[in-house]
Amino acid sequence: MRLSLLLSLAFCSALLAQESDGKKVFETHCWGCHHQTAVAFGPPFSEIADKRTKDEIKAYVISPESMYKAFGYKRTVMTQFNLSDNELDLISDYILTYKGTK
Ligand code: HEC
Fold first, then answer.
1. What's the rounded Cα separation, in Å, for the pair 37 and 42?
2. Whole domain around residue 18: which residue ranges?
């Protein structure tokens, strides 16, 4: 009983930590052009989350230059980043938390 309570606390704080790290990547690199649910220079995360998979999001962030045509854009103005695998994971998960919030 005690143990399962402890385990679920540990689980929740791991989830929280993950969300705030994803948010940190977002605030550091993406916020100037993307907002969570409002259209900014780029599309909102809620819209991206509704139409893309995690792998698609990662692929776009790794190389907008080679992905924009497949995503239906005529050109890309998005910055090319050099994020670590971990940061890519965190930011894609963070974007996907906005699924269904349009
Ligand atoms: C310089 C402005 C800018 C920055 C910074 C930026 N983006 Fe973008 N992003 C755009 C624009 C504009 C588009 C629309 C297509 C294009 O120009 O590439 C876009 C498109 C995207 C798409 C594809 C949208 C779709 O149709 O599914 C994803 C995913 C994305 N951005 C994620 C990110 C993430 C994650 C970051 C931060 C690591 C980021 N962007 C930073 C401007 C930016």
1. 11
2. 2-96
